């Protein structure tokens, strides 16, 4: 089983026991604000950690010093596989944001992707209002490829109408990758 590490982090597959740390951040409104789901209960966090433990797209990001899981990455191959394109996603505990942990973890996973998995293109999408997300992508050297209008909705307003959101599309080719 692949385990990646950086100066401060261990990036590994999920375990069912990660549910407590997962619940600590997925139960926060400010963390799930731009996610397609709402805050998770303890029960949902147990189920989600278990589900993720057998889903190779999810990576747990843990502090080397304490072992605490402070966030997760999502890295999923797209169909058709011959296009060698993967999607990157990330969610970090709000208490641990602003320390460069997400950037450090993404850089390591991208290195693994480009150098070991021989990926050609990585894409990432985010809501333009989620500045922390697209700033992270730009620090990682991703290019903004598009701004699509009213692509979907995850939430409703007080009258029950969908709150449509836009989407920024970002991409990074292996040929653009430089550590
Ligand atoms: C998107 C998200 C992962 C970005 O996290 P982040 O902590 O801002 O990103 P980084 O790891 O790159 O950290 C950069 C910040 O750490 C600071 N920093 C401190 N020490 C640092 C170090 N050693 N190295 C690098 N940066 C460091 C930087 O100055 C920067 O701060 P700033 O934002 O105030 O300028 C995070 O906001 C998040 O999880 N949001 C909720 C979930 C979400 O919306 N996910 C995306 C859905 S599309």
UniProtKB/TrEMBL annotation:
Which keywords accompany this UniProt record?
Transferase
Pfam families, A to Z? Acetyltransf_3
On the tree of life, the source organism's domain of life is Bacteria
Q: Which InterPro entries match?
A: Acyl_CoA_acyltransferase, GNAT_dom, N-acetyltransferase
Residue ranges constituting the N-acetyltransferase domain according to the UniProt record: 9-175
Q: What's a single GO MF annotation on this record? A: acyltransferase activity, transferring groups other than amino-acyl groups
Q: Answer whether the UniProt record assigns the keyword Transferase to this protein.
A: yes
Matches recorded under SUPFAM superfamilies? Acyl-CoA N-acyltransferases (Nat)
Protein name per Swiss-Prot or TrEMBL: GNAT family acetyltransferase
The species this protein belongs to is: Paenibacillus durus ATCC 35681
């Amino acid at each position: 089983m692949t385990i990646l590490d950086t100066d401060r982090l261990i990036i590994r597959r999920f375990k069912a026991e990660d549910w407590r740390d997962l619940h600590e951040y997925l139960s926060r409104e400010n963390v799930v604000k731009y996610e397609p789901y709402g805050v998770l209960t303890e029960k949902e966090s147990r189920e989600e950690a278990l589900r993720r433990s057998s889903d190779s797209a999810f990576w747990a990001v843990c502090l080397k010093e304490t072992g605490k899981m402070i966030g997760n990455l999502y890295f999923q191959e797209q169909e058709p596989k011959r296009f060698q394109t993967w999607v990157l996603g990330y969610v970090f505990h709000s208490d641990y944001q602003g320390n460069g942990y997400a950037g450090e973890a993404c850089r390591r996973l991208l290195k693994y992707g480009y150098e070991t998995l021989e990926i050609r293109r990585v894409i990432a999408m985010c809501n333009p209002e989620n500045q922390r997300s697209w700033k992270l992508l730009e620090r990682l050297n991703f290019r903004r490829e598009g701004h699509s209008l009213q692509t979907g909705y995850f939430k409703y307003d007080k009258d029950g109408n969908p709150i449509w959101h836009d989407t920024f599309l970002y991409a990074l080719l292996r040929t653009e990758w430089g550590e």
